Amino acid sequence: MTSIELDNLSLVPPKPQNTKPYLGLVCITFSKQVRFRTITRTRYLQLSGEQRASTLRELYRDNLQRLDGALTFCQKHEIRLDRMSSALFPMSDWEDGVGASILEEMSADLAKIGQRAEKLGIGMVLHPDQYVVLSSDSPQVVATSIKILERHARIMDLLGLPCSPYAAMNIHGGKSQRPKQLIKVILELPENIRSRLTLENDEYAYSATEILEVCQRAGVPMVFDAHHHICHENLDSYDDASVAKIFYDAQQTWTNPEWQMVHISNGEEAFNDRKHSERSNYHYAECL
Asked: Which pLDDT score is estimated for 20?
């Protein structure tokens, strides 16, 4: 099934032909009922060791309940994919190790969430933040990026999610004009990261054609972002031939091409406005 994210939403067309795609749930939410809680670095540093543990334990349990609520919403509305927030467990990668220890302590609770998602047939993916730059010319930035991915991969392990791009950790190419560095780092990543990694084109550093070549050489799937492609190439329609071409080229980077993830969205003020709209008009997705 092809999975298409609409402005951070997802469309997952089922296998039968001529069937409309399913919407996916985005991690960015507005309702207080489902918005994930967080804590700032400044606030965290003001807490004692005991306070840090109790604060994070409560916060993590609350966010797990909200994640479970997201699965309930997906089930009710026949949504087949949920993009989790990369900030679901804030401070879990902090050097004091408090957050990481609490997640291990809660491993049974995390596993139940993953088991429920599997039972419901709902895929779970995430998009690590902008600080993950595997193509950086700074060894320290690369090391920090890998550390972030390791923490995300451990969370996905605790959730019981497969080491597969269908439990994707999707990132951008990072620093431009460094494809060889990007490929080198990817090939050296630990298996529980590399096996889940997908790469996405962007509107600035890596065009769809460039990131496609990286994916082909690194052996990881490409998540084609049609909106970023539109902006990068300054196109005025999704009918441009390059959209369909890259869509199908990217499809071949997936082990099972029938299950491909693609992003598609609207500009906020104009079709090729780089800023995403809060709503997506996806009638044109059927042409892909």
From this structure: 57
